[in-house]
Amino acid sequence: MVKINAKAASVSFRGVTKIYGRDVVAVDDIDLEVAAGTLVTLLGPSGCGKTTTLRMIAGLEMPSQGQIFIGDKDVSTLPATDRDVSMVFQSYALFPHMTVMENVSYGLKFSGFDKSETKDRAVAGLGLVGLTGYGDRLPSELSGGQQQRVAVARALVLEPQVLLFDEPLSNLDAKLRRQVREEIREIQQNLGLTVVYVTHDQEEALAVSDEIVVMRNAGIAQKGTPRELYEAPASAFVADFIGEANLIPCEILSVSEGMAEIGIGSFRHQLVSRGLAPGKARVAVRPSRVRIGAAGQGMPAKIAKATYVGSRMEYTVEAEFGQLFAVLDDVASPLEPGAEVMISFAESGPVLVPE
Amino acid sequence: MIGWAGFLLLPWYGVEDFYTFKWLLDGWPMDSDYAPAIMLIAQGQKLWLAPMLLALAAPLLVMRRRKTDAIYGKVLIVAGGFGFAWLVAQGLGIGLRGYAYGWMIALFGDLGDRQFGMGYGGLLVASSFLFVFTQGIAARGAVNGDVFVTAAIGGVVAVVTIFVFFPITKMLGAAFISDDGGYSIMEFFGKFVDRRIWGLGCFSGTNCGAAWNSLFLAILVGLLTTTLGLIFALVLTRSGFKYKQSLRALTVLPIITPPFVIGLALILLFGLSGTVTQWVAGVFDVQPTRWLYGMPGILIAQTLAFTPIAFLVMIGVVEGVSPSMEEAAQTLRANRWQTFRTVSLPLMRPGLANAFLLGFIESMADFGNPLVLGGNFDVLSTEIFFAIVGAQYDQSRAAILAMVLLGFTLGAFYLQRFWLGKKSYTTVTGKGDSGVHPPMPKRIALPVYAIAGTWGLFTIMVYCYIIYGSFVQLWGVDDTLTFKHYMTAFAVTWGDGGMRWTGSAWDSFFTTIMIATIAAPFTAVMGLITAYLLTRQNFAGKRSFEFGTMLSFAIPGTVIGVAYILAFNVPPIEITGTGIILVVSFVFRNMPVGVRAGIASMSQLDKSLDESSLTLGANSWQTFRLIILPLLRPAILAALVYSFVRAMTAISAVIFLVSARYDMATSYIIGRVENNDYGLAIAYSTALIFVMLFAVGMLQLAVGRTKIGRRSSNSGGH
Question: What region holds the ABC transmembrane type-1 domain (chain B) (predicted)?
Answer without folding.
Answer: 211-416, 509-699
